[in-house]
Amino acid sequence: MSRPIIAILRGLNPTDAVAIGQALLDAGIDKIEVPLNSPNPLVSIGIMVKEIGTKALIGAGTVLTVEQVDAVAGVGGKLIVSPNCDPEVISHTYHKGLESWPGVFTPTEAFAALRAGATGLKLFPGALAGPSGLAAMRAVLPKGAQVYAVGGAGPENFDQWIKASADGFGIGSALFKPGMAVSEVADRAKQVVAAYDEAVR
Fold first, then answer.
1. Per-residue pLDDT tens for 59-71?
2. Which of 62, 144, 167, 197 lies at a C-alpha separation of 20 to 30 Å from 161?
């Protein structure tokens, strides 16, 4: 069963990529982003695409330029996540057939992102908007627009965000921090999945 959770592996080393990716997959998380400010991110993405790319959606986070989109596509990545709303990057991603999840914080940014071809919206920073901010924005968003809460959303408040209409989540440090043992990532991933499953019951 696939869940609307994107694992954010900021700081991942290529040597750990396959083991961490497989641990997430085994726990039930099959969407993985490696932020481009990680060590050798394209190497990590390429390795995971080769090893688990048929079972997981893998790509990059902190994508800021069209050149970076091309670089991620070049190693087989299919997921492009950004902290900002850049219509040029979104449109380029869309035309390459990749998933585009730009960061938005206002209705203006949300509509600009959707118009440019975004697959869905990353409400960021979620902690600043809060569930009430999402609920207010949802009133004007087009029906069916996908919104993932990122930053300030996690196992402790999945239920509040889901009540406020969040479609999914991006989870970073609650799942992974550099230097963490694979077994700990696996345990955290299972806890995140269990909390999500409980919240959507």
1. 999 999 999 999 9
2. 62
